[in-house]
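User: Hello, can you help with two protein structures?

Assistant: Certainly.
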Amino acid sequence: MMSPPVLSGQVKGVLEEIASGVAVRLGVVAPGGYGKSAVLREFARAFEDAGVEAVVVDDAHLLPEGELLELRAAVERGDRPVVVAHRPWPRPRALAALAESLGRVRPALMPEPLTRDEVRAVLPAPARGLAEFVHRQTGGVPRFVARLSGLTAPEVPAEVIASFRADLDWLEPDVRKFLLAAEAGAALRLDLLGGLLGLDGDAVGDVIEAARATGLLGSDGALLPIARAAVAALSRTDRRIAVRQRLAELQLRSGGPVLELVRPLVGVAGPEMAEAFQAAAVEALPSDPALAARLLAAVGTPTAEIAVRRAVASAMAGDLDAALRLADQVIAGGSAHRGAAAEVAAIALAHRGQLARSTELHRWSPSATSGAFAVIGQVGTGRLPSAALPPAPPTMLDGAASLMAQGVVESVTGPATSALSTLVRATGLLEPAGRSVLLPDTPAALAALVALHGGELPVAESVLDRAVATSLGGALMVVRHRLLRAWAAMLRGNLGSAREALLALRRAGRPLEARDWLFAVALEVGIARRDSDLATLKRTWEQACEAVLRHPVDLFAFLPLGEFAAAAARLRDQHRLAHHLGAARNLLRELGDPPLWAVPLHWSALHAAIIAEETSVAEEHAASLAACASRSRYAAVVSAAAESWLDVLAGKVDADRVEGAARGLHAVGQWWDASRLAGQAAIRTSDRQAMVRLLDCARLLQGRVAGSGGGAGAGAGTGAGSGRKQSEPVAESDAGKLSDREREVAELVVGGLTYKQVGDRLFISAKTVEHHVARMRQRLGCGSRAELLEQLRQIVG
């Protein structure tokens, strides 16, 4: 049960007047549900307590003219108290005269909705925690607050919605139609309301006033949330559809938006809404392509044009199966829209890694954008275009597509900087279109690939961050942009960030298309290899092999292929990739061995050969890198690093040369490779001074503090402690018994890494790690490995 009504200061003042014997003559005016009846009950009780005979009348707007005239006469005589409550509408002439007479005595009392605090005060104790929800739903209208007084959760029960039937059933037809228009969001559109109701402006105003008098509208003229839900649930479906259809027709005639009008009718209305559904699909496409596809599916029997538009929406929503199916039907049907359908199919196939087939379909389509995308596909599959691109039409999409094609061609025929500049310009041109364009690849992704292949990681990161921020290419391209961004993180050695990106993709639960899956698996393989996580590498390897089988070799998939090559060597399974690596080399030869694309692949193949201990093969790749050294700064850096690697493996460690090569790799963004080169050189030199210097360099390039430990054999500390019971806490002084290097080892061992993994991280051998662990166990007086781990956890946290 609700608490007693909240009485305003005005009401309390009138009650005091009644108690003091004043002959109160007063009008009480408010919409339905505002508590007029409750106020009148308080006044009647006060008159009774004072022993005064008074005229107290509720709902005067429903009285016949004769009774209203009698009430006015009583007010004019002034011989007895008269209190009359009524709604502001309807307002017949006799009621207006009565209100005028009362108003000359004193201004009408107008009850207001309850404030949030007042709602909390009148609700029963169990529901007071939901006061904010109740106020938001009801606008503070007392009648509706009372209906929600039994709430136990922030949702409106079906029985409360059903209670509004009595409020709606007695309304005039035009008022009910207005409420349906208000439920559709058109409460303030007088032009639409006039067309819907077939009334002039004054008559529409009267209908709106009648609706306001019901108490179902808020102060802004829109339906209260609880009333909107009731109107939607309790109105006949055919009437609701008819109102929204008529509003949509009026809106289409004026060129206005219709999406919010027809959105609730998807799956309810039929072909009679076809025109509105099509217009709404155009509005929905940039922000919700899946909704656009559903709207177009609701049209009924579609034309070829609508089928193509639905295929576009399906593709942008990531439903490539539906897009390909719809496009294929149009192509097979032989209509004039076959070219547009072929373009959609080509884009879908590009995402599925079928670049050769995608290119053929783009060449078959007559559009200028398809012509540009065909050039990109040709280069990606190893064929230089034989003719210049035709001039692009002056649109953002066509202009950007033309620049994309130009940039990709420049990446194999000219300087990498020129290609990167062209692709970045294409990205800027297309950014305003944001998520509203369907693309086989974005200029941002292509620019990032060129930047990653050319050692320009800051450019790759910047252009990808902007692409994510502007939703370039819509939902279909989100995963690709994030994967390439994670790739840059992996190259920098920021494995945690790269791993988190993969985890976020898994949490999203969205199936990956072949191209994205290839990069995602390659990232997992690359992270595991750099983390010396052999278990994960083995577990992921079968997925990697399947991903390669599903994605034919093309120029834009060289990064994953190179990562797989190194992993295959680590797992002694090179034969699984031999055919694909051969296809990649053939593709490069067909394009004239462009350094931009060739250098990273040779670098990965060099490491694969080093891991497999195939020195002659490693030397061949180093020679190929040397041949490219004069073509770009990045090629020169990688070539110098390759020569240093081979020298280090041969036992020839020139500290100056190694450090220079490592710092060069770091400068082009390959921080992990840089640190690895310096660290491997450090553990292979017999010159202790060079070893310490190279270890400091490795730590610095890895992001660790230089000089944090001694050499590879550092770790000698002060005397060993005597035996300690396992239950004893580790004293603060015990932590000081560990050297800096032992602390580093302890942190990684406690983290669950094997001795080999720890050694790979710290550029020391597994045997040295084992030595450090034995020394710590002795120094801390631990009788078992379990006791050691417990004490190390207390020391390193």
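That covers the first. Now for the second protein you mentioned:
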Amino acid sequence: MSETTVTVNAPVAKKIKKSLEKHNDIRIDNYFWMNDREDKNVIDHLNAENSYTKSVLKHTESFQKDLFEEMKGRIKEDDTSVPYKLNGYWYVTKFEKGKDYPIYTRRKENIDAAEEIIFDCNEMAKEHAYFKLGGISISPDNKMASFAVDTVSRRQYTLQIKDLTTGEIFSDKIENTTGSSTWANDNKTLFYTKKDEVTLRSDKIYKHKLYTEEEKDVLVFNETDDTFNSFVYKTKSKKYIVIGSSSTLTSEYRILNADTPDGEFKIFQERERELEYSIAHYKDSFYIITNKDDATNFKLQKTSETNTEKENWKDVLPHRIDVLLEDIEIFKDYLVVNERENGLNKIRIISWNGEEDYHLPFDNETYTASLGNNPDFNSDELRYGYNSLTTPSSIIDYNLKTKIKTTKKEQEVLGGKFNKDNYESKRLWATARDGVKVPISLVYKKGIELNGKNPVLQYSYGSYGSTIDPYFSTIRLSLLDRGFIYVIAHIRGGEYLGREWYENGKLLTKMNTFTDFIDCSKFLIQEKYTSPEHLYAMGGSAGGLLMGTIINLNPELYNGVIAAVPFVDVVTTMLDDTIPLTTGEYDEWGNPNDKKYYDYMKSYSPYDNVTPENYPNLLVTTGLHDSQVQYFEPAKWVAKLRELKTDTNKLLFHIDMEAGHGGASGRFESLKEVALEYAFLLDLEGVDC
């Protein structure tokens, strides 16, 4: 791909010195002024960054369009979800050719009955640059649907109710909700969650009565601890309304019989620091997934409906040091357990009568299996999903009685070029600097040579115990088919190897997350999969923090890095409790009002550790309305990098001026950003087709 002369100069941000003092330590932030989204100078600067990025990548524009069409061309446009049955109706979500948004439908009793369109998001989105439909909740009598809409991409949803018998959408609008709501069994009482206007913390549960104004809604719970978020739902058994309240390390639940919505909620088990639990109801008992009694990987316990305090909990599945208990699904005759052992997903089937206890067989080391949508308590069919780095996604129904497995849907890869036998995946183990073995999943097109010349894109996240499983992607084929090896590094901070894997990558052990990633990079270079000239790294959000830290620690290892919506100004953000979501993060990163956490955060915070040195080629992306990582973090970081870096490598900043943390809302719009990212990588590799 030939370079052309760039006529637009890189934006140089003005510097306004601001001193930030804490614990007798002074940090100078010359770009603090960028925090004001309403400041015209800020918007002008962001627009200038976009213009600069566009000019630098102008010679790739036709390639970006080709990549977009190529990726879009693999996706079936007229697609439908696998139907599921709930309370007498079959529900299907479908996409139609040429349309960006889903259509939600249902059919009464029989899958061949007349189709009823509940919501057509294409019509609802017409007047909006961004559109997202929140949780749909159907009343028990099937006559009403509560739903929520976000048209800003700040995850502040407006809640409304639709009469499904007449099609009328009630004019009442409840603003600033989480988007989810749940009906009591009387078909007229709706529980929902509101957010704090400034911090966006979900802190209040309200009760709304059908045909009444919002002003008459009753506050039933107020979470006053600003490190907790609250939510409300109904148990799968339909017997209880549950209010949950959780922080990173602590849980608390309240229950109310769904037949008596005007009653008082009862605390299930009072919150205790670092006691985590979640609850599911079956017959006259509750089943509890908990870390009680030092059950690091969690265990399953049981208690009666009437005696729910922890001293009454009895073991059903005891704690296991080598198996992480992730989730359960309760059916009338079976308990299904989602486990993880040695990094691999396992689905365990246990009959309530005690006669059966076995695992579904999976025969791969780089697969992902997960429980699907199983809303019907009385069903004998377990729905789960399966895919791998080389195998497209399947939705599978497994009959728990007959043990017959039926594939309900296989992901189609259009375009006529994909053959899974042309690709290979494997799992490797890199040795970290402290001797710990770190797993790596990778996929590539068959025929590569280990000569150090392969381009590698190494991806990771590494926070919140969130595990990036090895999954299939039609989009990724555009890199694999052009010679890239795609790598997922299962670093500490996730839960790939159990809860301890997470605990050893947070708070005062957070540095393990970063050094694990770097040690995986060094392993790939050492084993001749690639070299620093051909190694690329990518991560988003907390994974963007990872990107910012690794290029401060070892910039020489990477030719290019993509940091999406990166959390890079850790100390300043964590000290500002007015920024959305900050206080709930203390158990993940630490509270910098405590000096030991302040000092530790400052030691790795990307923004605080930018120095005059050579950095890799960089593409940074964000959204102006991002509620998770505020746009000004990457904006300030890019400005400081421009000021201090000593190389002539690319430093590009792309800001979506209409979207937030998740990017564009249209089904295919997000592919345009992927095309930009891939063109950036492929251009650095000299690939232009």
